[in-house]
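pinning this so it doesn't scroll away 📌
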Amino acid sequence: MFPKIFKPFFIKKRELVRIGPKEDGGYIVHKKVLKLSNLLITCGLNDDWRFEKDFLNKNPKCIVAAYDHTVNLNFWIFYSLKSFYHLLIFKKLRLRKIFDFLKFVKYIFFFSHPNRHFVKKISQKDNAKEISILSIMQKYQMYKNIILKIDIEGDEYQILNQIKKNQRHINCLVIEFHNVSKKLKILKKFIKENNLLKLIHIHGNNYDLTEQGKAESLEMTFLNKNFVKISKKLSKFSYPIKNLDYPNLKRRNDVHLKFDEK
């Protein structure tokens, strides 16, 4: 059972929209965010930019600035060799495997002007290989409607103070928290101390479960209350929300979240 503070504020279901696939990589945002955002900052990319692609399909005026130090030339050499190996050993050529082999080409096309990928690690400091949220926000200070998406495999806790200090510049924050059972106090404090960014959606990642079947990774969406008026009432939805949330891992049932009422 999760703390009551993890329960989102009430937003009508028709005002929420899923962006990206109906599996791992898809997230929930407010429709107004989708309509008005002009910059999507992605922290953590790996080999999946389906959220970003779907977002731009629905809002072509937006641009993407992605940061991930792990996606470099060596990453794509290994990825392409592995995909080519799979093509050789499978007796039948599967369309998905062919697409995997060509993914580097798709990456090049997607992250050409005006979309950019920067091979830098999200950090608390700035140097040749690392960059802080503060520096990113300063770099793009000319943009007024910013959505910040973060999935950096546990490093998110190191930058929460930077997010809080810059929350007035962020209209929507989509973030995945890992190792939740060990970081409950930090996460509770972050949610409580956000004056502007209010939690409007939560989903448990069924890839990462405890022995008791409890989600160890949580996908959360925060909305700036100055951007969209947010009710002071807490949501009465059951999570996951039907026809909005889907299992990250398709072959495993989704995780049902329960909250302490105290």
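📌 and the second one:
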Amino acid sequence: MTVNLVDVTMRDGNQSLWGATGLNTAHMLQAAALTERCGFRAVDFTSSSHMAVAVRYFQNNPWERIRRMRAAMPKTSLQFITTGLRFIAWQQADPDFMRLVYRRLQVNGIRRFVMLDPMHEAPAVIEAARIIKQEGGAEVMAALTFTLSEVHDDAFNASFAKALMASPDIDLFYLKDPSGLMSVDRARTLVPAVKAVIGDRELEIHAHNTLGLGEMSSLEAAKLGISAIHVGVGPGGDGSSLPEAQRMVANL
């Protein structure tokens, strides 16, 4: 069995630990060659919020940042995360505007998209995935966002995944645990429940280490056939970020 790693340092580690202001374009370019050599499945690279921070705090051109990193890391997929039909502002955007956004992101170098809907509205995820495929054909990964409640049990997550399976434009899935609440016991039931629904499509895990559970739930998920674990490199890992990469490799 092969378990890949997805590096989150530049986007989620940067956001979780440093409010997205810890790394500017120059910092990222300095790390590009080393990151490329690591052979990550993908690099969680940017979002519309990160693009806004690039302009407001650093006066960096976020489109140039994507282009230059694409050139510096030609073999590694750069990932963009979004809540569907939204770009920089928190209000929902017009679908035609989002079509333009998704087209330009792919033209500039984004090769992988994470589609996240906080309300678990399957039609919204499916529509965004369809537009992305039409505007460039990048890989689309749908998020199954984990939380603890009487409603959000394994059956709920499996049902949401099943609804998304109706779309041929969604290539793979990931369990997204932004609060780091997933226990080892819960991973043991949740991973098989989702895998039973999605068949041969890949399933990754993105579990924050806020409470120290992210590392353990990710390792348990690896035993259950997860295809990739999301990690942060060195100071970009642990805490409210994702498990640290080198330690994760040693434990795997």
